[in-house]
Amino acid sequence: MGSSKPKTVQTPYQQTNSYSWQTMPDTSDVSALRNMKFEVDPSVSAKYGQANKQLDEGFNNPLGAFTTPAVRDATARAGHMKLAQGEAQETREAGFQNQSLDYARKAAVAELTAPRLTNSGQSGFNSQAYQPGPSVGAQAAQGAAQVGVALL
To answer: Which terminal Cβ of the chain has fewer Cβ within 10 Å, N or C?
Structure first.
């Protein structure tokens, strides 16, 4: 007589994850960064104002060097134009740098305060189909019968 073992069939593990958006807290550091304002470099206009003044004073020659008023005015106009172009260029660069800093600040605040997608829980189970075998008493009787047959 052959013994029949109970057969089990396993199905794959089934898992369910749940996700939710987690809002980041607004700390004082983040608020300070959010409200920070950058200024355009004020030294640009001061530097060019000083250069214009030096250009104008350069024509005050106490030794009386001979230059006609027309030459002096043309030279002053050319110098002022060159200084104005340089000042405009530096002011534009300072404004661009200010915009770049402001953009970087806004990007940092956005990254620090963006909601995070987090795993808020998981559940799972392993389902099995079980075929019940003979009871313990039936297994004992079957074992005794096999022993009795072997003794004969």
So the answer is: C
* Structural contact between residues 142 and 3, judged by C-beta atoms closer than 8 angstroms: yes
Token couple for 53: 């003044």
Those residues with Cβ within 8 angstroms of residue 97's Cβ, 6 or more apart along the chain or in another chain: 41
3-state secondary structure of 27: coil
pLDDT digits (tens, 9 = 90+) for 114-144: 999 888 888 776 655 555 565 666 676 676 6
99, 38 in Cβ contact below 8 A? no
Q: What pLDDT, in 10s, does the model give residues 82-107? A: 999 999 999 999 999 999 999 999 99
CA distance linking residue 70 with residue 68, whole number of Å: 5
* Residues 112/27, Cβ–Cβ less than 8 Å: no
Q: How many CA atoms lie within 13 A of 139 on its CB side?
A: 9
Largest CA distance in the chain: 147
Cβ pair 149, 49 in contact under 8 A: no
Residue labelled with tokens 């809002």: 23
Give phi and psi for 10, each to the nearest 5. Answer: -105, 140
Query: Alpha-carbon torsion 67, 73, 77, 83, what sign?
Result: positive
Scan for tokens 């019940």, then name that residue: 132
